[in-house]
Amino acid sequence: MTGQPFSDKSKTVAGLLQLLGLVGIAGIGRIYLGYTGLGIAQLIVGIATCGVGAVIWGLIDAVLILTDNVKDPKGRPLRDGT
Asked: Is this structure's pTM higher than 0.85?
């Protein structure tokens, strides 16, 4: 609609990968999107807090990704679907 090109990454895939934080493995969705530093930080927080931080951060981040509040590192909106 806006004429802006979409990212080659899917918000559905990224959001579902980020939901792995519910089982203590946060950050995979951010690594998939290209935010490697943030993804590693989420993994470290998950390990340091015995999974509690991963659950909270992963759930909040998954909601942000799935509701179009996160763009790829180049500032492009994420694609819908796979």
From this structure: yes
